[in-house]
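Title: Comparing notes on inverse folding

I've been comparing how different people in this forum approach sequence design from structure. To keep things fair, I'm posting one structure and asking everyone to reply with a full sequence. Here's the target:
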């Protein structure tokens, strides 16, 4: 679907919920974002709320790039710090030189990848050796519960209701846990952390009578030499 249908509502919601500072706090506490990181990349940046919040917290950041496939989402961005820049681009063709960034993150976007291994390879390309990639995404169990087949082994999209616009739904590619791990390890990443969380929808009607994790996170470190 086109994100033009709910870009304004998304922007309003993340501003009301102070999503930017909250997520940057997560990047600090879970993934180790700190003053030593000077070049950052946000994959699926939306309205750039989180990118701007990262720069506001760490004003020594020298370059902050946000990419998103939807120009409608990018158009919602307000005034940004001078070091922030946004561009409409695919996560498998990031407009940046090799080893451009020392900290990369993605919030609920990697599941849209057309080729998970290719995406992880492209992120590795633009990340310096030793750099960090923090991935926050829809949990594979959530995908299983929403698949029409209810079969974890079947490669099948699931229909997700948007939190910011509950009357709209999008099709989310369903990757398995093993696919995330294999894509990371196979493209030069070391897994230094993994987490599962119960989100706001964990007990929603789609999952009743189960309470399921809806969020998965990976903290990855770029190996010194790509395999």
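Reply #1:
Here's my take.
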């Amino acid at each position: 679907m086109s994100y033009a249908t709910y870009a304004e509502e998304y922007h309003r919601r993340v501003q009301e919920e102070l999503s930017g500072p909250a997520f940057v706090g997560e990047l600090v506490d879970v993934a180790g974002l700190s003053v030593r990181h000077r070049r950052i990349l946000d994959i699926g940046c939306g309205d750039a709320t989180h990118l701007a919040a990262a720069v506001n917290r760490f004003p020594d950041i020298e370059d902050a790039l946000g990419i998103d496939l939807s120009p409608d989402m990018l158009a919602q961005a307000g005034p940004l710090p001078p070091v922030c820049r946004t561009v409409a681009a695919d996560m498998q063709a990031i407009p940046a030189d090799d080893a451009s960034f020392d900290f990369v993150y993605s919030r609920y976007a990697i599941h849209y990848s057309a080729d998970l291994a290719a995406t992880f390879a492209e992120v590795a390309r633009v990340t310096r050796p030793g750099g960090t990639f923090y991935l926050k995404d829809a949990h594979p169990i959530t995908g299983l519960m929403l698949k029409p087949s209810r079969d974890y082994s079947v490669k099948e999209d699931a229909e997700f209701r948007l939190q910011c616009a509950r009357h709209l739904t999008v099709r989310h590619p369903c990757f398995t846990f093993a696919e995330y791990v294999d894509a990371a390890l196979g493209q030069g990443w070391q897994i230094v952390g993994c987490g599962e969380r119960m989100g706001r929808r964990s007990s929603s009607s789609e999952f009743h009578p189960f309470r399921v994790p809806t969020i998965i996170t990976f903290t990855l470190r770029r190996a010194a030499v790509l395999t």
